[in-house]
Amino acid sequence: MAYSDKVVDHYENPRNVGSFEADDDNVGTGMVGAPACGDVMRLQIRVNAQGVIEDAKFKTYGCGSAIASSSLVTEWVRGRTLDEALAIKNSDISEELALPPVKIHCSILAEDAIKAAVADFRSRHPAGADTLVSEQIACASSTR
Amino acid sequence: MSDTRQAQSTARPAQPVYLDYAATTPVDRRVAAKMVPYLTEIYGNPASRSHAYGWAADEAVELAREQVCALIHADPREIAWTSGATESNNLAIKGAAHFYKSKGKHLVTVATEHKAVLDSMRELEREGFEVTVLPVLPSGLLDHAVFEAALRPDTVLASVMYVNNETGVIQDVSALGAICRAKGVLFHVDAAQAAGKVPIDLAQLPIDLMSLSAHKIYGPKGIGALYVRRKPRVRLEAQMHGGGHERGMRSGTLPAHQIVGMGEAFWLARDTMDADNARIQSLRDRLWAGFQKLDAVVLNGDETQRAVQYLNVSFNYVEGESLLMGIKGVAVSSGSACTSASLEPSYVLRAMGRSDELAHSSVRFSIGRFTTEQDIDYAIEQVTQVVTRLRAMSPLWDMVQAGVDLSTIQWSEH
Prior knowledge:
The complex is a heterodimer of chains A (144) and B (414). Chain A is α+β, with helices and mostly antiparallel strands. Chain A is built from 5 helices and 3 strands. Chain A has a 3-stranded antiparallel beta sheet with strand order 1-2-3. The radius of gyration of chain A is 17 Å and the shape is globular. In chain B, helix 3 runs parallel beside helix 8 and helix 8 crosses helix 12. The longest helix of chain B has 36 residues. Chains A and B meet through strand 1, strand 2, strand 3, helix 2 and helix 5 of A and helix 9, helix 11 and helix 13 of B.
């Protein structure tokens, strides 16, 4: 199995491996996958008061492509708002890492990990700093 | 031995250390040397009865046949050359099933057999035969009572491999063969991984058909043989039709150079088997001792009923492909889904009752004639380093260290 240089790089030098303090309230944790499938990713995001992800950490049980996908994601979500993080698509990940077709599912799992981490954060900070643009009341002109 | 912190304490070899002898073996130089003249000088077709070129090639083929027989105690008339153990398995199973179908259409085999056996059986099912695939015990061994109970009056053939290619587990083919004899069922044994590793005496063993391979014991790839018992006579329907070679059992011009290679490899094995095994056993023990220094390491396969060449280990909480990627300097195989074309974890380990995660975390190390102590020490070092690093990155290891029982977790199935 030939790995792309980027996958090898992330495997040899994974970014942001680890976990945040368990009692840190500003952290959202997403755990996706299952040991039975050979892929488990745990992604953690620490969100500041402005709703921006200022730090991220991961731990992954899985193949080189899975490790690379989750490592890459911790790089990409930094500096993004929660909505911007949700906009990351698995196709972006797999393109960046040049994943072969048989490994695309690793990038899908990484995308799911982001969603899970964001959902976890939002479940504990419902009307928090991350004000959604869509919550703004639509222009009332049509209700005339 | 103190635990040195020198990361490069064992110099990295130029080529990866080869510990995948179960996958294939290098051709022994003595074997290769014997083969070469049959490519360029003694190149006649062994079936050419009318000239010296053919006679010379035929002589070499018959000598090789005797050499193979010497290792397994068979009669030369009981050997049919094939392209390898896969073809031998096909010929034995399909050949016997078709020939004896008026007697019955039931076949018996085991869940841990090689795909060449299982897939041949599946093909016969499509043709209307009935196949029983028996489970194994967690050790990988067959329960003899279960085996016996599966044999019916309409059972024509049972197939059980001698040495398992993933775990090295040795089935008691002598006892199983006796059970078959008593019930009038033909007994086929896939001995691809067994020849040259465990003694085979077909004058004593109640085996009717046996598949043999050259490239598992330092012979060339692409050549094998099928042993077909004469007393009592076993008949087969040929699968390769043509000029009627090999007593009509397998048509096709005999590749003299390949056959010479197989003969020489088997002949050498006869001499070296005991010494090879003793040396390999101590290397294997050394390797296992090295791994046992790590936590959560599980041996796959019976402790004692196992050929000395094999060490199939699961390193829990670390996925197999990522482990293999890290031990670049060591060539081995994994039972992980990611390393198989089908994305399924090892069916052999699953049949032994191993959980998916243990199957995903499994690595097969197989030792051979040319393995050195240095190779073993390097492998231990590499594996230890990588397992430790990957566990530090594993959320499963984290949870286990924190005392979490993973079986209680609700995983999000993807």
